[in-house]
Amino acid sequence: MPGKRIAIIGAGPIGLEAAMLARLRNFDVVVIEQGGVASNVRSWGHVRLFSPFEVNASAWSRAACDRSALPPDDALLTGDEFFEQYLLPLSQHPLLKGSLKEQTRVVKIGKRRFWKGDAIGKHSRLESPFQLLIESAAGEEYEEADFVLDCSGTSGNHNWLGEGGVPALGERHLARRIEYGLPDISGKDRPRFSGKRTLVVGSGYSAATTIVALGNLIEQDSATRVFWLTRQASDTPLPTIKDDSLQGRVDLTSAANELACKSETRVTWLADAKVRQLSVDESDDLLVTIELQTEQGDLACQVLAVDNVIANVGFHPDRSLYEELQIHECYASQGPMKLAAALMGEMSADCMTQSSPGVDGLKNPEPGFFILGAKSYGRDSRFLLRIGLEQIQSVFDLIAAEAE
Ligand SMILES: Cc1cc2nc3c(=O)[nH]c(=O)nc-3n(C[C@H](O)[C@H](O)[C@H](O)COP(=O)(O)OP(=O)(O)OC[C@H]3O[C@@H](n4cnc5c(N)ncnc54)[C@H](O)[C@@H]3O)c2cc1C
Description:
By secondary structure, the protein is an alpha/beta fold. Helices cover 25% and strands 21% of the residues.
């Protein structure tokens, strides 16, 4: 669409795919990325994706790339392989030349001429461009755009360890000692965990990935000790998905559950437990006070002395970026309201069975502004790249109609 400019926040998989479609449809595009290309994917580069390449990459970008250089459709790539074999070449595609601003952070998005409370919910707000305050080592500047796609993910904003999502006592001060991501336990981070005591908190696939890696470490160094804390009382830490179509996810779930439930492993599962307090003793051990239910139903306190705490407790969106725009958010997931409502109606834990709710779910009261990718799911961790690619297509159909 000549003459119309789209600003895309984030050069993750969804931001890059959106940028390619924008260029293929002749929009002027700028992608603003606070780090380097796909910096979130690279932070868990040692982890293998459980969905095959063909559903992780769009038809439009694959058609525009040199097909012989692409991974096979059925390849289950690690994050690093996905970056090296697809996302990096995509970011260097001639169509995107000059469109990427790396090491540049979007601080705030507003509108020229309209303040937040002006022309409430009116389409006339689209007549004035968006204004983005961006910041890099060179300083601050404004970017202007007719449309904005917020593809900034959630990985920069971890949840907290304490009960109800409130930081545990002492957690904020010790946050630098806590790992909120996925360390490379079998690779470069191994010395930090081998022969050491580690507490893992969480009951999703990230926690399962961590536990399985630690389980492998125990086999190589039997001095390694692992505590796995989950807040639910259930038979296994992770639920199993009936007739799961993703074999990688089936294997991960059963390996992690087995490590937790078999008595002879050196993984101690603490179910129905909460983290209350963290402190450091004179030998620099982390002391973690946990509360757990006894078999008699009483609340008991236990103090664990550990070398590491890995908090795989999820992430939430940074909504401060768009607080000067008119956005209707879900009060539970913090995703855009219409999409969140559609997702709540689809409570299956199997993200592979989810359908994309279509463009209506992606519309905000603020015309021309869309939240796509992992951020569109807010705190809901079921997002899949396949869904993000469908979102991009739906949004571009709408933008094309509005840009005319
Ligand atoms: C370990 C792991 C395994 C996964 N495996 C799969 C899988 O097998 N299949 C699948 O479909 N999904 C998988 N996912 C889920 C999801 O697809 C990925 O998290 C994916 O990276 C989401 O892509 P995204 O582009 O929406 O966000 P991100 O990859 O998070 O990209 C967002 C980008 O925005 C940038 N950014 C953030 N804030 C700003 C700002 N203010 N200004 C500028 N830039 C900013 C970030 O630096 C980042 O580069 C997995 C997730 C994890 C964590």
